[in-house]
Amino acid sequence: MQNAAPLKNRCESSPIIRIIFSAMVAVVFAAFFVFGPMQTLSLPNAADGVFLVISCLAILLLSCLFLNFKVKISSDITYIALLAIIAAALALRFYLFDHQSRDYNVFLSQWLSQMRSLNGVEPITTPIGDYNMPYLYFLFLVSRLPLYDLYLIKLLSVIFDFVLALGAVKLVSLFIKGDGAVIAAFTASLFVPTLFLNSAYWGQCDGIYAALCVWALYLALSRRPIWSVSLFALAFSFKMQSIFILPIIIFLVLKHKISLKHLTAFPIAFFATLLPAILCGRSFYNTLSIYVDQTSSYPSLTLNCPSLWALFSQSDYGFEVFGTAALFLAGGVIVAFGVYVYLNRDKLTDKLLFDCAFIFTLLLPFLLPRMHERYFYLAEALSVIYVLLHKDRIYVAPVIILTGFCVYSAYLFSNLFIKLELLSIINAAVIIYVIKKFTADLSAESHRPALKENDKKECF
User: Are 249 and 229 in contact (CB under 8 A)?
Assistant: First the structure.
């Protein structure tokens, strides 16, 4: 026992050593970037190249600083491995930066052209596009910068890829100790195919709201309710798809992770995101009408989404008959599940609260109509954390990610190698399995001795 402390000290590292490691990796990566990804990019002008180098180094160093000072990593070997993972994830994404998706060509680039044709703050006061205000502020800024807008759009999403991965690390660390959990959560989050294709290839921004939701959930479970509710509101202000996880707030309130008075932060934070547009002269109704318009867009049972309605999308009646029924079914199932959880609320542990949030992100996009192929994004991100918390269910994440990749492939590469109806059945099977395991875990809690809330299990 006397040698335990010296051994521990030998395994730990000083911050100075890790800062030196970070600087060395940054120099090596900068050199690699210049002779690697930069040689494959079109780079309309030299400023774009300089900006990308500076940006990727900033992402690398900021991620390193966060891991060094905010995550408990016991060895230098683990830290170096994480540096390599960051560099590899960045390189992978930048190799994809030149691709122009249909969404960019048809929508984003056209909206930016409109913004450039307007003066002053007119792009903010003029209804352009169907994105929510925070992202429109970003597009307004892009329209005023002398840099390639495609790179700027993708760069923002890539930044939030790392914000999401770091949030996953912190969330997993609430339940599991050890460097292995940190490496697994960070690596898996950065290399989920649908996640990096969404940001770096497609140029979509689903990673923004997903990252905010992951951090909001972490902050709630670590008892920082004001910040948690504010981030949930910010996620909602970016993307309405954050509603897939928002029902978990009810159970966070029931478990006293969030109080009713803390919920006032939600409207305050949400309306704060609308304030710049209103101050610039855009009407309050017009800022909110974006959300109303989104709920009535795309009158289809499914838009290439492996949901329940993929089994009915080819019907002669389609959305006209099943659209309203789909809303009632989704509402009924969510209420029934919520009532069941409410009746068993005393058995809810922090881990079961996370599982409950994961189930919501599966159920809602599966049952609602008008869902796009990207709407399982948050479920795919949380599935990585789910399997780390439940090692006996390791195949849940690969299956969910596979169905997502298949529909991504159909849209991005015009190749759907598994029929949408079969993908829907696969998703249904996973959802039933996860709910069955949840009810079993909930039942087991009533027979388990009470543990301290901060008790953690050594895994990996």
Answer: yes
